[in-house]
Amino acid sequence: MSDYSEVMLAKLNPEAKLPADVYIFLNGKHVKFKEKGDTLSQEKYDLFLAKNVKSIYVESEHILEFLEWISDQKEEDIEDMVKNAGEENRGLIEDSLEMKEKVYEVFSDEKLTPEKVEAIQENVRDFVDKIKSDPITAQAIEAIMKRNDDIAAHSINVANLAVFLGMAVGHGHSFVLENLYMGSIFHDYGKAKIPPEIYNNLEHPDYAKWINDHPENSVKIISKSEGIPDQVFNIMLQHHEYYDGSGYPSGLRGSNIYSLAQIVSMANEIDNLLTKTKDEEDEIRYKKVIDMLTLGDGTKWDPKFFPRVTQAFKVGFLGDQKLT
Ligand SMILES: [Fe+2]
User: Fold this and answer.
1) How far apart (Å, rounded) are the C-alpha atoms in residues 306 and 322?
2) Separation of 323 CA from ligand 1 center, angstroms?
């Protein structure tokens, strides 16, 4: 019989090819989950997080090789990021990679406390500062600002909120957070292409079509740039799809909708509501957000995110210590 060694899931890059078979612990025994050469896949990684699975297992005879692979992966991540952000940011990048394990720890606790939400908010600030100094992100924000100030401001708000919600539901991997951020920055890019006489006139006969097409138009424009991951395109394309199938443009349903697109969808609607109610008192506005999120549990958005997101928002924005 083999012996197994435990590895924290948070240490793995879900997109990297595994150097050994990987097992999960199920009903009192180790069950082979992925073969050597497979990837863990983002989907399964999300599923594990949702189910609060913290560890995977490797046959003990392969553990040294496996740990070496993890550290090589990390080195590669750091080198890639240094290449983009510059040697002067190496320290910052190394710190930010440590962050993912911290965030994962936050998630693995059953209860969200004000201290934990504060830790998430601090991590969001660190992450956003880091990603904004990345020339690719800076260029993207500049490009959208040139097109439309309102859409740019909205997109930046959505990006910050999406990273906050993403961390609150347990995403700590920088790769996932970057996709959430970039997907949010570009989510409404296609709207900036709508001619102003149509965009500003809800009665215009072509208005509905332009709105319906904006996710696909965003993808069409951005796909001309190189190096944007598919995950970012999926977020852009699906940020108006709803869990019950009532969204657009494709009416996708349930788990057919990309999980990160659902997070951006929530962030998008939170920012829209906060903009609409900007003249009201903050406490009232935030309560309206909680009500909207609660209503969307299982209709607009996957129930797996609840009550986590409402709790995180309550504690983070209302400072409400009484978690219900
Ligand atoms: Fe949109």
Assistant:
1) 17
2) 31
What's the CATH class of domain 4-72? alpha beta
69 token code pair: 């692979």
Cα–Cα distance for residue pair 95/176, rounded to 1 Å: 17
What are the backbone dihedrals phi and psi of residue 283, each rounded to the nearest 5 degrees, phi first? Answer: -60, -40
Tell me, in angstroms, the distance from the centre of ligand 1 to residue 218's CA. 9
Neighbours of 41 (CB within 10 A): 12
User: From the CA of 24, how far away is ligand 1's center (Å)?
Assistant: 38
Q: Return d(Cα 161, Cα 293) in angstroms, integer.
A: 13
Domain boundaries, the chain: 4-72, 87-318
The amino acid at residue 289 is: V
Q: Are strands 29-34 and 55-59 parallel, antiparallel or unpaired?
A: unpaired
Burial class (CB in 10 A: 0-12, 13-18, 19+), 309: buried
Confidence of residue 102 (pLDDT cuts 50, 70, 90): low
pLDDT of residue 262: 98
pTM: 0.73
Which architecture does CATH list for 87-318?
Answer: Orthogonal Bundle (1.10)
For the segment 119-173, what is each residue's pLDDT rounded down to a tens digit? Answer: 788 878 887 887 887 777 888 888 888 888 889 999 999 999 999 999 888 777 7
What letter represents residue 238's amino acid? Q
Q: How far is CA 280 from CA 222, 284, 294, 315, in A?
A: 36, 7, 20, 20
Q: How far is the CA of 217 from the centre of ligand 1 (A)?
A: 11
Residue 215 Cα to ligand 1 midpoint, Å, equals 6
Output the CA 210–ligand 1 centroid distance in Å. 11
More confident site: 102 or 313: 313
Query: CA dist 75 to 22, 42, 56, 178, Å?
Result: 22, 21, 21, 18
